[in-house]
Amino acid sequence: MEKGEGPSLKKINKYACACSIVASMISIIFGYDTGVMSGAMIFVKKEFHISDVKTEVLAGILNLCALIGSLSAGRTSDYVGRRYTIVIASILFFLGSVVMGYGPNYTILLLGRCIAGVGVGFALMIAPVYSAEVSSPSTRGFLSSLPEIGISTGILLGYLIGWRIMLGLAAIPSVFLGIGILRMPESPRWLIMKGRLREGKEIMHKVSNSPEEAEFRLREVKRNLGMDENCDDEVVKISDSVKKQDEGVWKELLLKPTKSLQRILLAGIGIHFFEHATGIEAVILYSHRIFAKAGVHDHQHQILATCGVGLTKFSFIVLSTILIDRVGRRKLVLTSVSGMVLALTGLGTFLTLAEQSGGKLVWTLVLSIITTYSYVAFFNVGLAPVTWVYTAEIFPLRYRGLGVGIGVAVNRLMNATVSMTFLSMMSAMTIAGVFFMFAGISVIALLFFYFFLPETKGKSLEEMEALFTKSKDSKNVRKEVQIGNH
Hints:
Layout: H1 14-48, H2 52-80, H3 82-102, H4 106-134, H5 140-144, H6 146-160, H7 164-169, H8 171-181, H9 188-193, H10 197-207, H11 211-224, H12 240-247, H13 249-255, H14 259-277, H15 280-294, H16 299-323, H17 329-356, H18 362-394, H19 397-452, H20 464-467, H21 475-482
Helix pairs in contact: 1-3, 1-4, 1-6, 1-8, 1-15, 2-3, 2-4, 2-19, 3-4, 3-8, 4-18, 4-19, 6-16, 10-11, 14-18, 14-19, 15-16, 15-18, 15-19, 16-18, 17-18, 17-19, 18-19
GO cellular component, one term: membrane
Protein name: Major facilitator superfamily (MFS) profile domain-containing protein
Pfam families: Sugar_tr
């Protein structure tokens, strides 16, 4: 594999790409629910006569309930496999969508959001993990970022289409996804972890670009699991000692982690924390409030400006899939967050001027919209996709399900915190003050990413632990990673 080279059409395995696209459909459904609810906020508040507090609860309850799904999904995916975990998420989305579509009152709508929220927890954990495990190192960034494209597509569709019937329509793709994923292969790494070597080998050859790459990936997975690299049996019995080790992953990862695991866990939790602590959910869910404060008072114009948020998000997520394996995760996220700091500072400044003028200055209105779109663009070109790609690839195989599940739980907790407190914070410290706060948090995020996130571009999943091992023996490995070698 050539040094520092990004994906090309020749290097993207079509079978692996198809698997990742199908798995990413679940993210489209999740994004769709988010987008529909964002557009629906204006009408739900009027139809059900609810307060700002109830509006915040409705916005955030999906992510709060996602904690249950994300913390359950890791162990579930290790026991039943990656495919069946996606099926479980599809069923939950189906049930939640039906209940939301029915939604005759606030309570039923809230219940539907809760059910769908558990599905969100499963989906956000499993989609990037499945994509990462079927992808080769050269295209893993591209394929693992497909779920984020799915989310952006769903949000854009949700902005463009009405809310009540559209909430229920999300049930239809859930059915097709549940059926479609059963035609996709199981993760080869999961099969090998369970001792099913023949099946794992067959699928690894299908999702690799050459027989040589497939054999190389197989040897690395076996070595990572403590198996004989030359073992070619169809089925290998997993010893009781290995099973007991698997049962102790919670203790090993959280209570007695090695130094490298500590750094991996810090990086994984940190990037998920800052993805939403920097305020993106406030813009996605409450963009109509932002534009109203800037001086857009007509509801139709607010919805039109909000559609611009969705279009910007989608466009820059697509751009990120081209850049993530070419530029690398580290450079992309540092550039992304630097731009977010500038955009958030500008947004806070222009909203302050807009409020002081009573929304009568056209230039502050225009610049408020531009800086809002700029923030969304910078977020989605780097931090949004890198968060999911990075955490899906840095955890060693036996800790991957649990590690990513914990990261997603933190992600959803911060998402819920922002979405359920934004209106209250806006009342307490003005909308401009809230965005100045997000700018300050983004500065802290930038420092965290600079010091704690090594480059992972071009490395196999089995090499990741060495990147986080600070010793003389690993200096050469880390140096290779920084220049994108494989």
